[in-house]
Request: fold
Amino acid sequence: MEMKTVYFAGGCFWCMVKPFDTYEGIESVKSGYMGGTLKHPTYAQVKTGTTGHLEVVEIVYNESQFPFDKLLEIFFSQIDPTDAEGQYMDRGSQYTTAVFYTDEAQLRQTKRYIEQIQSQFNQPIVTALRPAETFYLAEEEHQDFYKKQPERYQQEQLDRENYIKTHKKH
Reply:
């Protein structure tokens, strides 16, 4: 059983856990921060957009049960990869999209996947490809948000859908 890890930044991490959390072969999905200069950042610090961190989800998966390409399909179906200013109503560098890869195979597969889907968009895909850095686990209240606060999670989803309807780019 080969366990691997990848980190996806797809806007607010509250909305990025559930899409990955229910599949056989995905061991865990955790919310956290990556990419900034501050050690052990807090949510309050990251949400200001001044630390350089992105909100990310750490996904630990069994590649023989759940191939990396399937993770990419799920990730890219959740985001607008052409938006360099954030995601949906969440604006700022902390909400931009990125794949933080943990090996060269993930990097190659992600590049190939982006090349395959680029024609589906009217604008260039701007999702960053970056090597994984130190992952800082978010505070407990941000873990499994969709389970702990289902009403707020549902409202976030509705807000995203409404934003998409009024700001559709592709």
Notes: The mean pLDDT is 92.
